[in-house]
TrEMBL record, chains A, B:
It comes from Streptomyces andamanensis. InterPro entries: Ald_DH/histidinol_DH, Ald_DH_C, Ald_DH_N, Aldehyde_DH_dom, Aldehyde_DH_Superfamily. Residues 16-405 form the Aldehyde dehydrogenase domain. It comes from the Bacteria. The lineage of its organism: Bacteria, Bacillati, Actinomycetota, Actinomycetes, Kitasatosporales. This is Aldehyde dehydrogenase family protein. Pfam families: Aldedh.
Amino acid sequence: MLSIDPRTGGSRGPAATEATAADVDTAVRAAHATRTALADHRARAELLRAAAASLEKDGAEIIAAADAETALGHVRLTGELARTCHQLRTFADLAESGRHLEVIIDHADPDARPAPRPDLRRCKVPLGVVAVFAASNFPLAFSVPGGDTASALAAGCPVVVKAHPDHPRTGVLCARALRTAAAQAGLPGDVTAVVHGLEAGVALVRHPLTAAVGFTGSVRGGRALFDIASARPRPIPFHGELGSLNPVVVTARAAATRAAEIGTGLAAAYTQGLGQFCVKPGLVLLPAGADGDAVVAAAVTARVPSGPLLDPRMREAFLAGTRARAALPGVEEVLAAGAAGAADAPLSVRPGILSVPAGRLAVGEVHRALLDECFGPVTVLVRYGCEAERDAVLGTLTGSLTATVHFAADERDAAAADLVARLTQLAGRVVVDGWPTGVTVAPAMHHGGPYPASTSTSTSVGATATERWLRPVCYQNTPQELLPAELRDGNPLGVPRTVDGVYVLPAPC
Amino acid sequence: MLSIDPRTGGSRGPAATEATAADVDTAVRAAHATRTALADHRARAELLRAAAASLEKDGAEIIAAADAETALGHVRLTGELARTCHQLRTFADLAESGRHLEVIIDHADPDARPAPRPDLRRCKVPLGVVAVFAASNFPLAFSVPGGDTASALAAGCPVVVKAHPDHPRTGVLCARALRTAAAQAGLPGDVTAVVHGLEAGVALVRHPLTAAVGFTGSVRGGRALFDIASARPRPIPFHGELGSLNPVVVTARAAATRAAEIGTGLAAAYTQGLGQFCVKPGLVLLPAGADGDAVVAAAVTARVPSGPLLDPRMREAFLAGTRARAALPGVEEVLAAGAAGAADAPLSVRPGILSVPAGRLAVGEVHRALLDECFGPVTVLVRYGCEAERDAVLGTLTGSLTATVHFAADERDAAAADLVARLTQLAGRVVVDGWPTGVTVAPAMHHGGPYPASTSTSTSVGATATERWLRPVCYQNTPQELLPAELRDGNPLGVPRTVDGVYVLPAPC
């Protein structure tokens, strides 16, 4: 795997070797063999905290490598490293708390109706080796040491990551940090492994000991791997985050009262990280007429950054995608996207905004391209004449990670509630009077949405992300000595449990 | 669809009409249109309770129809109806409690690290129309008014059931009871619908508005539908319960101390409901030698029932399956299964027990047939010489709903704990010193297991069964008036919530 400079397209030489099917087999078997060692919640927590510390220790080197391979810049990557370490520590806390075990205990009840009840004790157990596919656009937070890896380890699952070809050297450095952390936590180094190469990824999904997959990437690549996972003799869960349009609705009253603020906010949102976020607002339903025009004017005149995209192939796709969309009948290029070569970054691009009357989207298939995600700094304004026309467009959209609405300050009526309900149907996160970029790591976060945003109902961010790597098991009439510790009387591990219908928090230690 | 008498194979005439693709389209669209009406938790609870009352009111007629179509007998079917109504009422309580919404609220925190936190409020929303496939062996509890239907309605999802061809008239009567209940609850009748016919089932899984599938049935049928669900342009969750061997291990010390009790218990367990339970113990690992022989002797001499299976096709499969297994080299027929025609039930069969040395299973592919589920009253004893041989057999098994172990009274050592851990890898429920038949409806129950027991990590019995039909949504910075009631300050619906990391029960009303 060559390490490529996205600013120039030049190669910095080989950074990693593509794994063969035999290499993948070795890695998965070695990871599988660490399951027993990982069964100890406290060792897992220690591993996750050591991983955060190890990444911080190597931070300067990792950030330099990631910037050289992604051109995302030191400020952004410093923030991303902090977020990555925060995720690791959050999942360490979760692993230690035992909340993810979702313990339910129903004591025996010989008088229960309609039938006597045996002693039943349920907890969750790890699925086994988890395959993680690193994302191009988050070389740390959604890659080798990212949320999928952290949540899988917290759940007790060994992890084999398929590194992203856009940043192989970053992947190698992060893999080293994870192995160092395992040694510090007294765990085998093979609890995590990293493999490189397209074929290695396919072999990883096909491997009989791979128990689940976490993926962040394109619809085409993700769907191909989902199909492989589903067609296995033993199908496995495939938690994929694929593509997302992230529609935004600006109501007529919002445009009438907050045009400049919304336009400026939009310009910042669709160009943040050069539009290379899965939650970039890619479609904005904006009223036709003067109020909407004022929003457009503010968006067009806002200062937006030019810069290189993550890789030359993505740049070609962006330039071709914006050209093709701009050429559709009725589509206006209100801000022209294009190449913007600079001396130090000849592959730079500049952001763009397209605009189309909502009526055009109803006419035929040709304009459907406007409803497909176009990765990079471009957004499509859809100008609607009335609410019915606006809602008709919403009715044609597929699932997204987010859906956003901008209201006027006092717009809190039944029509507003109806619009929020419509957006709920489309997405896993509904944002009001803000922008979807920025995915907070918090217990209530949900980062997922109806297909193609996700291939499952799960989240890849937030505390509930561990649910993806666990399955419940119920023990019936099992003697105390033979039960997992979290299910024993007296609650020796101090985990929260629902006992005979009552949620019981552990006593503070 | 003809209603067939499984005792004689004779037809009682047509009971229902096969649905065309157009009929399925109509039913799914009509169900989809009821989603808003079903959004009211209290109306759903009322519907579920009215359904239980309606089924009880029509109980005599329903039980008579079910017995005529399944030959399961009045005692069993009376119990199954009670269980079905209990399930409906349990899910009514759940819908009313709001526990299934899994509300998490994180208030805004401008000082949060590494980034300020917006106000985030997460709950769960219904997926949409759920397709339910009725099971042959539970004409009530896992069919039209069964657990899949009850849990989906509790979650707020309209349901279209594909009735089982073994009991079409029972399905028609139950469909009528559900429509009556909807009217009583003030809900549209189309919140549930029932369709008949194989092609209708396929059309149901393919329908664009079908959002998820619940299935109980064979590996072949279930896998075919799983493949269709996964290959859709928009794949949908397929929660299938397919096939299960339900292994039982009898330790050497258990056989030495409890042979008669275990043998008698086994005879009752594998013949209960004529072996037509998904949790029938189909494989028993039993020590070689005199102690194990004593278990066999007790099982062989126990009195076991003969009777008709659920349908003539199943009878043929049972007779052919037991014949083929008995003909394998080294397999002994310690109790010969076979046809057992009686005057009033010429299609009856009698139970059987096969036995094979564990070493045979290691030799080659031909004996793999013994590790496939054979539906009906037959079980396979695998006689092992040592623990390593026993564990080698366990290592070759695929997933099951249950795994059972019989220990001696004081057998609580590390080897016993290791055996429980091995069984945990194989199944969704581990039973100690008992039998897996009998699936208690209780919060801690888990009815599911690694593939092919289930196609997902979900359960079809117990409170967590609703999770299958919901997806999370997070609302970011959303004004109070526009939030769903369960997320508003003051908790007007009184649902349990996790607020800023603390689980908060509603105040008692």
